[in-house]
Design goal:
- This protein is mainly β and about 425 residues long.
- It contains 3 helices and 29 strands.
Length: about 425
Amino acid sequence: MYPLLTFFAISLPTITLATVTVSDPSDIISPVLWAADNAIIPDYNVPFVSVQPENIPAAYEFEANSTSISHRAFSTSLNDTSAILVANNAELNLSFVDIEKSGYASNLLWSSFYGFNAAVNIANASTAHLDNVNITVHNGAANVYVYGSDSVVYVNNSWFYSSGPVSHGVYASGNGTAYVSNVQQFSGGRRSSAFSGDSPAGYIHVSDSVAHTIGIGSATFYALGEIYANNVVAVSENGPTIFMDGTQKAYLTNCDTTAGLLGGVAIFSSMIRTSGAILSLKSSKITTQGADMPGLWFGNTIIDVSLYDIELVTASGILVIANYSQITLLPAEVSVKVEESTLMGDLITYNSSSIRAYSRYGNTYFDIHLNHTTLSNIDSQGFNIYYNTSAGLNRYLGGETITLIGGGNTIPI
C-alpha cells in the first residue's frame, strides 16, 4: 500500500519559456552510421582497482611544460590509448583544433576512474584550455577527462561527438574540475552522459550549452560530486536529466531539459543512506516523456530540494516519487521547498518514505486531493489525514470523516 496525494502549488508570477530550435552534433553525424557501436553493452565484469594500475598511454604527451597549439589535427585509433595526455603540472592551450579518437577500452573501470582511452586526458595538477575544439570519438571513449584535485580544464566554443559505451562528453574524476561554456555535445552509446563526475568526486560547471544523449542510462548530468549548470538545453532520450548517487549536489539555473527514462531526476544512494544531498532547480523546465515517469524520483537518500520558478511537465502526472523500483529499495526522506512556481501532479511515497513540501512567498496554497482510489490505497498506520473542505476537488467528500485502512481517518478542516 502507498499513499498517492495530488499536489498543487501555485505562486505567481510564473516563468514563460519561448520555443526555439537548437542543433547538436547528431545533426551532422547521424547516429544511424554508428548504430553497431552504440549497441555495445558496457562490460564492468573486470577486477576492481583502487590505484591507477599503469601510466596512461597517449599518442601525444604534454608533461611538465606549457604549450600552445592552434589550427592542427590530432588522432589515434589505438585501443586503450588517449589521443592527448596533459600531465605532471603541464599547461596546454588548444585553439581551432580537431581531435579524432577511435579504439576500444579493454577495462571500463580504468576508463571511468582514471581516464584511460579518453580523447583528451588532463591529470596530475595540470591545466588545459580548449577553445574552438572539435572532438569526435568512437568505440567508447570520453571526449575530455580531467583527474585530480589540482587539475582543471576550460572548454569554450567546442563540439563533441561520441559513439560507443561510457563515452561521456566532459568527465571529471578524482576531484578534478571542468568549466564548460558554449559547447554542443552528443553521445550515442550506453551510459554516456553529457557531463559526468566520478569517484570520489568531479566538479563540473557548464553554461550556455546544448546536450543530446540517446543511449540507455545516459543522463545529461551524472552527479558524483557537484554540478553547476546555467542556460543549458538538453535532451536525454533514454536517461534522466540528473542521475545522482549518494550525497552529491546539483544546481540548475535557466535550463530546459527533457528526459525519457527513469525520471526528470533520479537520485538515490547505492551505499548507506546519508543526509546532505542537495538539488536546486531555478528558473528552469524539466519535461518527462514516459507514461509512468515522475518529475523527481528519490530513494535511499535524505535530500533537500529547492524549486524556484520551475516547470515540471510530466506525461504521467506524477511530480515526485520517493522510493520506487529496484534501484531505490530503501526509504527516502525528501524535503521540497517550492517558490514562485506553478506545479500540479501527484506525490507518491512507498515503503515508509516521506515527502515534505512547503512554499514561501507570493500567493501560495497547497491542495490535497483525495479520490476514491487514493483512499483505498492509503495504509494510515494509525495516522490521520486532514483535508481542506473548501478545495473544489474535495467537495465530493461532503465534509465527512472517513475511516482508512490501518486505523486512521481523513478528517475535514
